[in-house]
Specification:
alpha/beta, TATA-Binding Protein, 12 helices, 32% helix, binds zinc ion
Amino acid sequence: MSERYARQVLFYGIGNKGQKILMEKTAVLVGCGALGCTSANLLVRSGIKRLKVIDRDFIEESNLQRQSLFDEEDIKRNLPKAVAAQKKLQKINSQVQIEAIVVDLNPSNIETIIGNANVVIDGTDNFETRFLINDYCVKHGIPWIYGACIGSVGLTMNIIPSKTPCLRCVLDTIPPFGATETCDTAGIIAPIASMIASIQATEALKILTENYDALSKGLFKTDLWRNETKRLHVEDAMEKSDCITCKQHNYEFLSRDKYSMATSLCGRNAIQILHPNGSKLNLETLAGRLGKVGEVSFNNFLLRLKIDKYELTVFSDGRSIITGTNDASIAKGLYAKYIGM
Ligand SMILES: [Zn+2]
């Protein structure tokens, strides 16, 4: 065993045996924002075998305050978050197989992406994707770790299929951040994301080293600004509920064949548009065509078109993120006009 993991091996909860098991395991991270950057960093340093980083977005200046894997150079290079994260993480630990996947996780690609991973870590910012992860993981018996934060408040919970309640079982228990509170209105301080992601990474280490008895139970909630921490006991939620997912085995998010073509992105003044058949685009050809209508730049991963007050970012699978509007019809109009259906 290399010197690299010497301190971790000394730790009673891991040891040589735990480290060997860890080095055979695959983790999937969905969403590489504030939570994802920290948990990816910690897991890659711990020496897991493989990490898949899934993220649909690119890096913006307002991310740098809390998304610890990114820097100003990444923004200049217009890198998607997953790609920038992969490059940074690979420098940290060249022994780990790290895969950057720039997609919107949806029912059509989740099976290929998550496969039979050993753990899935939630770094998303929306319940639609979390319910999809919940459906897939409950159906396939894969543990996953919910995480969320806003302002100075953070939440996390382990979902171990058939052993603990799933996200749908406890949904009523999850304190709403308030209907109007989003990253837009409430903001966020970096330490809360760092703390919740550190807990997620610790729980992942326990799962991956098969220390199931050490797992945190229930829903953990903390407010770092108000210095309040509590653990909500949800253990009996599964017995009490007639959960659509883990009791009725109705995986409604997984079985949807139609999912929204246009999605408003949390706190971004932006809309994501999915290409109807996700066909591969030649970004260079597209750049040649759009050069006449506005300011265009592109790299191997994405193309950026600035036109009036809007910015269209197009990925090679045809997916686009249109900033400068929260109106789906405006975004769809711009997409149809410039990218085409
Ligand atoms: Zn359930």
